[in-house]
Amino acid sequence: MRLAAPNRAATRRQTSLRFAYLGSGSKGNAALVEAGATCVMVDCGFSVAETERRLARLQRTPADLAAILVTHEHGDHISGVARFARRHGISVWMTPGTHAGAPDRDLPDLELFSCHECFSLGDLGVRPMPVPDDAREPCQFVFEDGRHRLGILTDTGHITPHIVDSMAECDALVVECNHDTQMLQIGPYPATIKRRVGGRLGHLNNGQAASLVTDLDTSRLQHLVAVHISAVNNTMDLACQALACAVGGRPDDVETVCQKGGIGWRELR
Ligand SMILES: [Zn+2]
Asked: What is the pTM of this model?
């Protein structure tokens, strides 16, 4: 397969689907997805100031955000959501279960959605999908603009047939490569945490992520990105190698998102 070279210049408002990451990992996650004039943030696991700083790095301000979509109530995804939404008057979209489990439910504008129903936010089509994770009602998303599809999958303990169906024929895939099973096994985590992380309601390991990508039709794929990579139980190289194998490409074809730096705008053409 041939992957497009990263389009680091894609920072202007254009009509195509594009995405960027403020950062990803166990200390905080947030992504931006944009179509036409609509920009949404997926999760916000950073402080208000840190989120503002990282948005500016991506040439965006809080006023640019049409909504914050929340995948689930774990702190690395939700800790910054309510404060950021209150500070900037942004509507927050989540499932009823995620809202029930949220640590701070004082939101300026709450929109509840079913993770079995598609909806639109301005120019952006949103297809939520339920995922197996140890949260109340966790979901992940496929985004569409009518021409392209972007699938984002993190915080999933195992791959379900519904996930494979939902992520079909994407032009960009962002997939969790949380841990290498061997590194997790011999690593420093207590046994209970190791069981949770590696369990069926935990996180995807490199092999599971690669197996998912292998099962998908990747003939349209332009971007393949590994996220939520553990700093303790994985390496960027291992994650890249696993996903590259899955698409018959080189590790250079796969991008990784780190905790600190995120990645700049990637555009689907
Ligand atoms: Zn997480």
From this structure: 0.94
Distance 15 CA to ligand 1 centre (A): 30
pLDDT value for 5: 52
Q: Compute the distance from residue 14 Cα to the ligand 1 centre, in Å.
A: 30
Smallest CA-to-CA distance from 234 within 254, 204, 255 is with 204
What is the CA(178)–ligand 1 centre distance, in A?
A: 9
Structure confidence by residue, pLDDT tens digits, 7-21: 444 444 456 899 999
7 Cα–ligand 1 center, Å: 26
Q: In what order do the strands lie in the sheet with 254-256?
A: 119-121, 124-130, 139-144, 149-153, 172-176, 223-227, 254-256
CB atoms within 10 A of CB 54: 22
CA 81, distance to chain mean position in Å, is 15
- For ligand 1, an ion, list residues with CB under 5 A: 76, 155
Q: What token pair was written down for 126?
A: 């949103």
Q: Supply the Cα-derived Rg of the chain in whole angstroms.
A: 17
Q: How confident is the model at residue 4 (pLDDT cuts 50, 70, 90)?
A: low
